[in-house]
Amino acid sequence: MLFRDRSINVPVINYPKRKGGKKRKINMQSLSHVWRGPQIHVIQQILSESKWIAVDDTTHIQPISLTPSRSHLSSSYITSTPVLYLLVESPTASTRSALAETPPRSLAFPPLSPSSPTTRSMPSLSDVLLDQAHHLEFESVHELPESHAWPTLHDHPCVSEPVPVIDMADPKAAEFMARACVSWGAFQVTGHGVAPRLLESIDSEMRRLFALPTQQKLKAARPADGVSGYGLVPISSFFAKLMWSEGFTIAGSPLDHARKLWPHDPDQFCDAIERYDREMKALAGRLIRLMLLSLGLSDEEVEWAGQGGELPPDLAGVLRLNSYPACPDPDRAMGMAAHADSSLVTILYQSSTSGLQVLRAEDQNSPARWVTVPPLPGALVVIVGDLFHILSNGRFKSVVHRVVVNRSQQRVSAAYFCGPPAGVTVSPIEKLVGPGRAPAYRAVTWAEYLGLKRELFDKALATIEVPQES
Ligand SMILES: C=C1C[C@]23C[C@@]1(O)CC[C@H]2[C@@]12CCC[C@@](C)(C(=O)O1)[C@H]2[C@@H]3C(=O)O
Ligand SMILES: O=C(O)CCC(=O)C(=O)O
Ligand SMILES: [Fe+2]
Question: Per the record, which residues fall in region Disordered (predicted)?
Fold first, then answer.
């Protein structure tokens, strides 16, 4: 039976059953090759008898109609070897379906037809799929798929300029930080007190995590409406192309994730993550305090951010582990698309492979340009996030940054996003607003701002700007 969707006239097909009547499960991993966003009508090729055929040629297809439910999509479509090639979604998003086949490896990545729509729009229910679907087995791809080829990589020149490096033990550290935050929105710190062994252990835990089979990692997949777990970064839904990276977000205890990833030995991962979290939280407190002092606040005024050395009880943190595999065509691939973080500050461990670039705005002497932040053994990168931009009434700039990839080496990074605790609002510090002026931004909680970022991406900050009377 061939079911034709009322409005788009595409066949909707159930996946084949295994012998014995058991449903074959489907791997969402190759969905990226056909996925084109919420309003898309995907009509692609399928593999049949070792040949790619157009979907409208239904002669080889064994069609059974199906409208999978949300839970259906997230649970039973995950498996070991078969590869999924077709997703059909109606413009009303009420009908969607999938077709599975198990191609030989050599045929795993079919060319997409040039007429395929490539637009993506706002996140929708489709992101249930998106989050679980785009898990390319990077190591087995020898040619960059079109789905991962970015047209906009060379928007600005890439130049080399000395990104500030600040020793936290330097008596002038706060002063240097103020300068770096005003003109760069980022700097590297040394003398931070985080033991090299802890950095080594987080590095090796990340490599152990990302080396797991995709199937295993998907057991800890981030739910579409959740924060924690294996999956795409939320901003992925704003881009027509996929990033050359994978990642894992941990908010709160890592234990549930670790049990899914390593059922027989979750402790090694948990111990490393928990130790790292504690150290990052303490360091974030010290950094924020110095940054606030550098803005001219007194010790009493910065008390809320925690005293130096102590665990600041009231900062929240989310850890994101990233992996950027070696890429067959790095000049056309994007590790992580240009963005600013929502945090107060992000502390980044970037291993020994370069890739992070910060955007320096145009000035009298130079046009806007990408500047690589070179890995410095033992150093950590500090990135000013939007919430600090708000807190400082725009004096410290949240910085747009991105990650480029390379041909020969996997790169891992651990980003610790630090923000205020749940329910606490961030608004411009009165002392920085200036007499007779209104604050440049309205107050927001981190949760509210993360919501704005998910919805509006790079327009989020502008939407909380307060118009100034001239
Ligand atoms: C707390 C968080 C910040 C973040 C969203 C997240 O829940 C975890 C991932 C973070 C990240 C990393 C890449 C860029 C970014 C904009 C995104 O989409 O996911 C940031 C988010 C953010 O800072 O808003
Ligand atoms: O991997 C990196 O160097 C940066 C990652 C990043 O920007 C992020 O996770 O927000
Ligand atoms: Fe970032």
Answer: 97-122
